[in-house]
Amino acid sequence: MGDILSEDSPWIIVSHWVMEIAVVIMLGMFVTNYVGSLTTVSGRSMEDTLFVGDVVLVNRMIVKVSSPKRNDVILYEKANGEKDVKRIIALPGERVVIVQGQILVNDVIPDEFRDVSVFVPGLAKDEIVLGKDEYFVLGDWVEGSLDSRFAEVGNIKREQILGRIWFCISPMDHVGWVGKTDEEEETK
């Protein structure tokens, strides 16, 4: 009996390995479900920021502890259960309208859309006032994007936002940080 319980016993060594593996698996499940995850970009609507096939890290924890910010590139869940990636351009309580090809948020053209002409304003042809938990999202390639301008997507509710895309890990020529919020831009 003494041999089985000795420190160098095969049973003790195996039980230590099993415990370590179980802890790593549980930690991995926690990180994947609550802190972050990977997703692969499947559409072209975020070009020239993200491209089809890019593998990105999603920070899921950030949306649990703080509000999404303007210019955040987010992963959200559509009403049909599919997931998509877009950029937040307007926040709760703000007004969005597209007039003569220009996107206006609270009557101001956002810097990142100053040189963009929007030929299809969709629902934003009339002013949209966002509710207290609603966000207006656009794809960076505006004319190739199905986004908040269209009834199929509409305004995104806070609970639909799964996380913030923060880093592209693949392919190698796209590796790097994704997007900056207004706060990060101001701290430069």
Description:
This protein has 188 residues and is an alpha+beta fold. The chain has helices at 2-5, 10-35, 62-65, 182-186, and strands at 36-40, 55-59, 73-77, 83-90, 95-99, 102-105, 128-129, 134-138, 156-157, 161-170, 176-177. It has one domain: Umud Fragment, subunit A (Ribbon), CATH 2.10.109.10. Helices cover 21% and strands 28% of the residues. Strands 1, 2, 3, 4, 8, 9, 10 and 11 form an 8-stranded antiparallel β-sheet that branches. Strands 6-5-7 form a 3-stranded antiparallel β-sheet, with no helix packed on it.
Order of helices and strands: HHEEHEEEEEEEEEH
Portion of residues within helices? 10-25%
Overall structural domain count: 1
In angstroms, what is the radius of gyration? Answer: 22 Å
Largest sheet: 8 strands, antiparallel
**CATH topology (fold) name:** Umud Fragment, subunit A
Mean pLDDT: 87
Number of distinct beta strands: 11
CATH level-two architecture: Ribbon
Broad shape: elongated
Low-confidence stretches: 181-188
- H/I helix tally: 4
Percentage of residues in strands: 25-35%
Per CATH, the superfamily is Umud Fragment, subunit A
